[in-house]
Amino acid sequence: MAILMCRPEYFGIEYEINPWMNVAVEVNHVRAVEQWDALHSVYTELGESIALTSPQSGLPDMVFTANAAVVWRRRAVLSRFHHAERAGEERHWRGALEELDFVIHEMPADISFEGAGDALFVGDHLFQAWGFRTDLPAHSEVARFLDVESTSLQLVDPRFYHLDTCFCPLDDHSALIAPDAFAPESVELVRARVPRLLEVPREVAEGFACNAMPLRGRVISSTAVEAIRAPLADAGFEVVSLPVDEFMKSGGGVRCLSLPLDLGLD
Ligand code: ARG
Question: Which residues lie closer than 8 Å to 239 by C-beta, 6 or more apart?
């Protein structure tokens, strides 16, 4: 699999657009680079190829490549960021995805959509979230362009403002979910479609455990994932935990730093 990443060269907390961000908290740049490098090494040691996009000064959140777009087969729906602070990223993501030969679709100007942060596949079924960063009308637009079936889920807790902070597909029939982050009816919609749901307690999800990347039988995530090592082992997954606390200061973990590019091609 190929994964899109962006070095944390200009990463920092320069504004506050989610409850985790506090401009008074400084990012330790050396540690951020070490943590990012460690994730990059895990991917390459597992045989993944990494596509790198160029970091841009003044766009501190570009390190979170999950928010570039949602991709499926060779198509990509570009993000239209909810906050003006991130809007400057859009043209860079377009350039990066064009270079990777994706056919690109743009959201109408008045509809917010934040890419794979709010759109995750279980098999070929797309789960999309609304409530904080992505507007509900984005979902049908995405489903139509990617030609996939989609289920809309409502997020209700501002700390879990993107779907990938509280939900993580593990394979075609299993996923991690932090039920507290969703409207109760939305949890039922997931339950009806995904036979094996591993429920993650709120405190564990707050450590960005669900912000994980499943890869070759492993679940790569923040150190908080250690708390669910046993249930994951029972489900057949080995945990790989990494410190990503410098990125958690911005409200992101392992998955936010990674955009899988080969979805739907296997
Ligand atoms: N500071 C970033 C923001 O608030 C973090 C993005 C995290 N990305 C994600 N896919 N959850 O937009």
Answer: 218, 219, 221, 225, 226, 228, 229, 232, 233
**d(C-alpha 168, C-alpha 213), whole Å:** 8
Instruction: Tell me whether residue 169 is in a domain.
Output: yes
Residue 17 CB less than 6 A away from ligand 1: yes
Question: Which residue, judged by its Cα, is nearest atom 6 of ligand 1?
Answer: 252
**Whole-angstrom Cα distance, residue 266 to residue 262?**
7
For residues 253 and 221, the answer to whether their CB atoms sit within 8 Å is: yes
> What is the structure's pLDDT at 94?
98
SS3 59: coil
Catalytic residue numbers read 162, 256
Distance of CA 16 to the CA centre of its chain: 19
Angle at 13 between CA 12 and CA 14, to 5 degrees: 100
Which residue's CA is the closest to the ligand 1 atom numbered 1? 250
CA of 192 to the centre of ligand 1 (A): 28
The reply to whether 266 falls in a domain is: no
Segment 60-90, tens digit of pLDDT? 999 999 999 999 999 999 999 999 999 999 9
DSSP for residue 248: H
- 133 CB under 6 A from ligand 1? no
- 112 Cβ below 6 A of ligand 1: no
Average pLDDT of every residue of the chain: 97
Number of domains present in the structure of the chain: 1
150: CATH: 3.75.10.10
Please tell me what DSSP assigns to residue 155.
B
